[in-house]
Amino acid sequence: MRAPRLWVPACVITLGLAGTNGGTSVTSTLAQWKALGFDAHSFISTAAALFVDPATANYQLKTGSLAIDAGVNLSPDVVADINGFPRPQRAAYDIGCYEMP
Question: Which of 6, 71, 74, 76 could serve as 93's disulfide partner, Cβ 3.0–4.6 Å?
């Protein structure tokens, strides 16, 4: 299972799919990419909407962040966040290296 990714506004995904369009790159929106069955847990957001203070590299999730409870279960490989707190802390796993208490 792929880990969820965070996308920024106006981002497009460039794919080099062998056997598709002769193996050349194609450009898709996030919605088109998800319609193909990829990255079902991904969403579009800004860093300011997700993290406490991205300008000072504080990437802990802020209250109301769309990344809270939006991750997937990666155990037994990942059972704690970067600070050693057990995952999950709430209803589901958070996206990223920090788990919101």
Answer: 71
pLDDT in tens, the chain (101 residues): 454 444 443 333 444 444 455 556 667 777 887 888 877 777 888 899 999 999 999 999 999 999 999 988 989 999 999 999 999 999 999 999 999 98
Token pair 């957001």 is at which residue?
A: 45
The sign of the torsion formed by the CA atoms of 75, 79, 37, 15 equals negative
Amino acid at site 92 = A
Name the residue among 100, 31, 23 with its Cα closest to residue 66: 100
- Nearest Cα neighbor of 65 from 88, 82, 48 is 48
Q: Taking the model in full, what pTM does it have?
A: 0.64
